[in-house]
Design goal:
The chain is mainly α and 315 residues long. The protein has a single domain, classed as Up-down Bundle (Formate dehydrogenase/DMSO reductase fold), CATH 1.20.1630. The chain has ten helices and no strands. The relative contact order is 0.14.
Length: 315
């Protein structure tokens, strides 16, 4: 599939924003994070900014962005519509919890209830985003059982890294958040490697399976449906060389998993003092590059089954 930057930015920015908000809403009521006003302003401000920017950028990929509101009416059958509805709903409990944290300095009682509800809504929204792709059987590399866990864990991991940086900047005890970040990164790495192994092992669809003629011998294309490029080939037949994909995967593993995990483990093992914010900033910068590469590959390596009728042997 053609990797549109607006969709890449949407999935990465909103994922990190929801991950950050979910951790605030769940760790605050548990007493892991103190209801510090400055930390709350910076953290909730960053989370809402990322979520809103990501949601707005997603409309740029639409043919008629001014009609985006109509997608909210199809929630019974469309995961995209469900994601939009959940995104709107999530603002309510997370906003109420932010008010309690920032203005009243409270994360207990009724505010704790809104926090837990807001955290669950954040997770549900990311789940809906992942299901937009995982529900598409026509794209075998998206209709994969590892896609949803990868989206959820990467959102939590990037959100935890951002929360670590903010806590370090405002001199809040960030050790529990750093531990959570390290665990999320490690699990996300395992899931992503499993996904890559899965799409290599799975032959996907072929011309034989698509036409149902495989039992009668080899099936080959006699003539292409079109003699020149068209919308289907531009949007659904994007190709990336295997050697480039391998290099980008190495960059992804290093930038998104190896470097952030090493730095977070170092922050857990060694109290670096003034260097801790620098290390936390480096993890956020590295993970940002890594998750952008990961998401670009997610789209670039996916091929629609329609490309079988344009010469692809398998998808």
């Amino acid at each position: 599939m053609h990797p549109a930057f607006s969709v890449i930015f949407f999935t990465t920015a909103s994922g990190a924003g929801y991950g950050l908000l979910a951790l605030l809403c769940l760790l605050g009521p548990l007493g892991v994070l103190p209801p510090d006003r400055v930390l709350g302003l910076a953290s909730f401000g960053t989370g809402f900014a990322l979520v809103t920017a990501g949601l707005l950028s997603s409309t740029f990929h639409l043919g008629h962005p001014e009609r985006a509101w109509r997608a909210l009416t199809q929630w019974r059958s469309s995961w995209l519509s469900r994601e939009g509805v959940m995104a709107v709903i999530t603002y309510i409990p997370t906003g109420l919890f932010a008010v309690g944290w920032i203005y009243f300095g409270r994360t207990d009682g009724p505010y704790a209830a809104t926090g837990v509800l807001g955290g669950l809504c954040c997770v549900a929204t990311v789940y809906c985003t992942a299901m937009i792709y995982a529900s598409l059987r026509s794209i075998p590399r998206w209709a994969n059982p590892w896609v949803v866990p990868a989206y959820l864990l990467l959102a939590l991991a990037t959100g935890a890294l951002m929360l670590t940086l903010l806590a370090q900047l405002f001199q809040i005890d960030a050790r529990p958040v750093v531990v959570a970040a390290a665990v999320c990164i490690l699990i996300a790495a395992i899931i992503k490697l499993a996904y890559w192994k899965s799409i290599r092992a799975d032959g996907g669809s072929t011309v034989s399976s698509a036409t149902g003629l495989g039992g009668r011998g080899p099936v080959r294309l006699l003539d292409a449906p079109h003699t020149e490029s068209n919308y289907l080939l531009r949007e659904m037949g994007y190709r990336i060389a295997r050697k480039h994909a391998s290099r980008l995967r190495v960059i992804c593993v290093l930038a998104l998993f190896a470097i952030p995990l090493a730095l977070t483990l170092a922050m857990i093992a060694i109290d670096a003092g003034p260097l801790s914010p620098v290390a936390a900033g480096a993890t956020v910068a590295s993970a940002t590059v890594g998750v952008l590469v990961e998401r670009w590959l997610f789209f670039a390596e996916a091929r629609h089954v329609v490309t079988l009728y344009y010469g692809n042997e398998a998808v």
